[in-house]
Please model this.
Amino acid sequence: MSKELIDDIIILYVEDDENTRDIFARSLKRKIKHVLLAQNGEEGYASYLKYKPDLIITDIKMPVMDGLEMCSIIRDENANIPIIVTTAHSEVHFFQEAINIGIDMFLLKPVDMTQLYNTIKVMAEDILLKIKKNKEKEIIIEEYETIDLKELLVNVAHQWRQPLAAISAATLNMNFSLSTEEYESEDFDEKVLSVNDSVKYLSTILDHFKHFSKNTDTYEFDVNENLLKAINIEAQTLKSKQIQLFTQFDEKLTGKGLSDDFVQVIINIINNSVEALEGSTEKVIYICAKNSNNKVQINIKDSGHGIKKEMINHLFQPYSSTKHKSLGTGLGLFVVYKTIKNIMKGKVFAKNSFFEYKNKQYSGANIQIEF
Model:
C-alpha cells in the first residue's frame, strides 16, 4: 500500500499499558500519519466523539472503562467503523461478547507489528473505497441541490417570463379594444385584475428562491384559492395559444407550506404542459384536486404527446430538458420537485395517463403531487 493511502485515514489506538502504547504508537506513526492515542475506554470514546477516526485498535482489559464497553457504545452510534481487538485473554466469553458487539478482527498479544500493519492495510483499502463512494454521492447530491448564481438568475428570468407575457397579452388586448371602441366593461375589468395579479406575483418570485438556502416557517393555506390564482396568471397565455383548461376540485382542501411557492409549482407544471402541447391539434389541460387518504392529491394532465419512457425517471433532475438548450433551462420541474419535497414535505410523480373531456378521451403527461 502506498504512503498516500495510509495518510488518508485516522486510527485510534487504545491501550492502558504505557510501554506497549508507546512502542506501538512509534511503530504505527512510521507508516500511518494520523494516529490518536488513549489509555482507557473512556478516553478512547472521548477521542472518537471529537475526531471521528476511521479505524479503532483497542485492548480489552482496561481501567475506568474496558475496551468492549467502549466498543459497544461506539457500535451503537456507528455500525460500520472497523474495530481490531488486541488481547492477552483467550477465554471464550470475551470472544463471544466481542462477536456480539461486532468486532472485525482479533489479534492475540504479543501482537506482531507486521501482522497488525497488514491487517490495517487491508481495512484501509476498504475504508478509502467507502470514503470515495461517499464523496461521489455527496458530489451528486450537491449537483442536484445546488443551483449556482448564474443558473439561478437564468431561472428567475425564466419564472418572470410567464407573468410578463400574461401582462403583455392582457394590455395589448385592452389597447386593441380601446382603439376600436369595442369592449365590454366586465371583460375590461377582468383583464385589469389579471394584470394586477401578475404584477403582485412578480414581486414574490425572488422571495421564492430564498427558500432553497434557508429554512422557512410554513403555514396552512387554501389549496383551491391558490390553484385559481395560478390559473388566472396563466389565463391569457392559455387563451392566446387556444388551449382549453378545465378543472375539478374537491371542497375545503388545505395544504401546509408556502402559498406563493405552491402557486409557482402549479405555474411551472402548466408551463410544462403548454410547451408539450405545441404542435398538437387539440389542446386540453385538465387539473384535478382531491382529498385522498387525508392527503391533498393534485393531477395536472395534458393532451400532448406524453413523456418519453427514457425521460420519466429523469424529469425532475436539474437541467433535464427535452427542449433545445435555447428554449429552456430544464429547471422548471426541478423547482417543482424541490418545493414539494423540501418545503411541503410531499411527493411528486410523472407518468402518462388518459382523461376524458366533453365525451372524448385524451392521453398525455400527468404530473401528480401529494402533500
Observations:
- The longest helix spans residues 113-145.
- The chain has two domains: 3-145, 149-370.
- The chain has a mean pLDDT of 77.
- The chain is about 50% helix and 20% strand.
